[in-house]
Amino acid sequence: MKFKLLIVTCLALLIPETIFAADLPSMINSIYSKVKTWLAPIGTLVIFGFGFYIWKNMDRWKEIGMQCFGILVVALVMINADTIASYIINN
Predict the structure, then answer these.
(1) pTM score, whole prediction
(2) Torsion angle, CA of 59/57/62/45, rounded to 10 degrees?
(3) Cβ within 8 Å of residue 17, ≥6 positions away
């Protein structure tokens, strides 16, 4: 019970327009727009982190490069999930 209250309190402090939305669709749209805007800085940090990791482990650069490529593809799919879903549904 305390954990749920902590989550609601953190959401209310961090993004008050989301937690106090009028209805569920507007709350979901608000959360979706926030996540979509937060993906670019998070992706940048991840790419810099992997670059630093590759720099420290140059002997395994092929293996690490394939993992970075896979993560990049997954991130691109997540960013464009609404476009991909509408394409699949309409075709």
Answers:
(1) 0.41
(2) -170
(3) 30
